Amino acid sequence: MINIKSKKKTINHSFLIISGVLFSITPKFVHAADGQWYTGSLVSPSGAEAHAGLLGIEPYYSYTQPIGYFGSNGVSHPQHPRQQTFSNSTMWKYGITDHISIQAHTVVNYGWEQGHGHSSGPKFGDFPVDMVWRFVDPNPAKYIPAFNLFAGVYFPTGDYKKLQSKQNSNGTGSYVFRVAITEQSTYVVNGHHALRLRTWGWFRRALTSAQLEDMSSYGTAAGFHGRGRPGMSGQSGFSLEYGINQSWVLAMDLARDWANGSHVWGSDAHGKRINRIASSSGDWQIAPAVEYSWTSRMGIIVGSAIYYAGHNTGVKVSPQFAVNMVY
Question: Which keywords fit this entry according to its UniProt record (predicted)?
C-alpha cells in the first residue's frame, strides 16, 4: 500500500472540501452520457463486469523514479542513491454473474539501485484475488450511482526471506485480507460531454505473520531468525474522467495512502533479542492521464502518478501506461 499534524489536517481538510464540491455539483447534471468509451483511470479500482461471461484483461507497465524522501515531519530531502523499479501489473477480471466478478492481479517487478545491484531477474510479487459485488445498480435518471464491494486476500507468492539482495524483496510472506467499497456515477456536462466520478476506500490487514530468516523484506540481516507481520494499511481517493469525444478522455486521480509500521520479533546473528515496530508512513498522489479507446472494449491510457506529499516515504514520479481489453 504524511506530515506534521498541522499539515495533515490542512491536506485532509482540502480533500474534504474538494470532495464536497464534487458531490454538491453532481445533482445539477442531467443524464448519464450514452456511448462514451473508457479505459478507467490509473489508480481507481473498477467495479464488477457489466455482464456474466465477460473477461477483462488490463496490463499496466510503470517505471518508478524516486527524486527525494519525505521525513517523519513531512519535509522532503534529497535521496541518494535512488531505488528504481520497472513493474508490470496485470488485472484479470471475469464476470461470474451480472453482478459478481472475480478479480486477480499478477505483479512482476525488476529493481536496481546504484551500489546495491539489480534484481536477479524479474520477480513475482504477492498475488491478490478478490470477489467484486455490485450491490447497487446505477440509475442516472434518479442520480443513483453504482456501488461495489470488494473482498479478497493477498497470497504470499513474492520473495521475502533468505534474500541474496534487497532488490529481490517483493513480498511480505503473510496472507493479507483486504476490503474496499467503490462508488461510480456518470453525468453529462457542457451539453454533451461525459463526466465520470469514482470514489473508493481500501483497507488491508494481515491474517498471519511470516517466518523470517536472514535478509528479508522486513529489513532484517544475515543471521536473523524470527517472525514479521505487516502493519495495517489502506487507501482512499476519487477520480474524474472527462470525455472530449467518444474515444478521447482526460483522467485524474487523487489518492491518499497510509500504512502502519511492520512488526518484527526474533533474534539476530549475535543472539540479541529484537522486538520492534517500524514507523508509520503515508503519501498523497495525483495521477493525470489521457485515455484513448478505438472500440467500446479496447483502449489505452497513458499518464503518471506523482507523489507530492507524505511522511517516511519517497518523493516519486511513476510514468505508466495500460491497455484495457474486454472479451
Answer: Signal
